[in-house]
Amino acid sequence: MADFVSYSNRFDQTVVNVMQNKYVSGFITLFCILYISLARPALPDYIHSLFDNKLFRFLVLVMTAYIATMNLRVALIVTIAFIVTLNLLNEQKIAEGFISGISRNTIERFDNEDDKEIKSLETDTTDDSNQTENQGSS
Q1: How sure is the predictor about 56, in pLDDT bands with cuts at 50, 70 and 90?
Q2: Does residue 133 fall inside a structural domain?
Q3: Can you tell me the mean pLDDT for 67-91?
Q4: 77 part of a folded domain
């Protein structure tokens, strides 16, 4: 248990030292801003699998909360980059699902079958009302 506490203290001190360095926090800020605004690359499969892992997402959020205790600006930017990445991954999943559905021809086709049924029902209803009017006038 003492080993864990000493590792935890060393980790905490290392992160504090890194986050207090204005060049490191500036670099992280600049990198995240450029990533958010310009890059938006097609993410590789290992990034997909990382962000699908609930433990990884939880650790990113915990680390962001921890960073927020030292440098709120960097924490906000990292949070925005995290959300943009999640959104990008969801968009890619939707697009891949749609494309694979088209390639497998499993997307439902709307050939106006429903419209034909509705028109035939309207025609039947109109015919019934015309017959009722004709019987009433005879």
Answers
A1: very high
A2: no
A3: 85
A4: yes
- Calculate ∠ Cα 125-129-130, nearest 5°: 115
Q: What is the pLDDT of residue 105?
A: 65
Neighbours of 35 (CB within 10 A): 16
Contact 16, 70 (CB under 8 A): yes
Does residue 35 sit within a domain? yes
Structural contact between residues 51 and 89, judged by C-beta atoms closer than 8 angstroms: yes
| Residue 100 forms part of a structural domain | yes
Token pair, residue 17, equals: 């030292």
Residues in the chain: 138
How far is it, in rounded angstroms, from Cα 36 to Cα 28?
12
Structural domains of the chain, count: 1
Joined tokens for residue 98:
């749609």
C-alpha–C-alpha distance, residues 87 and 96, integer Å = 14
Scan for tokens 């004709």, then name that residue: 134
Q: How far apart are CA 22 and CA 104, in angstroms?
A: 53
Domain that holds residue 9: 2-107
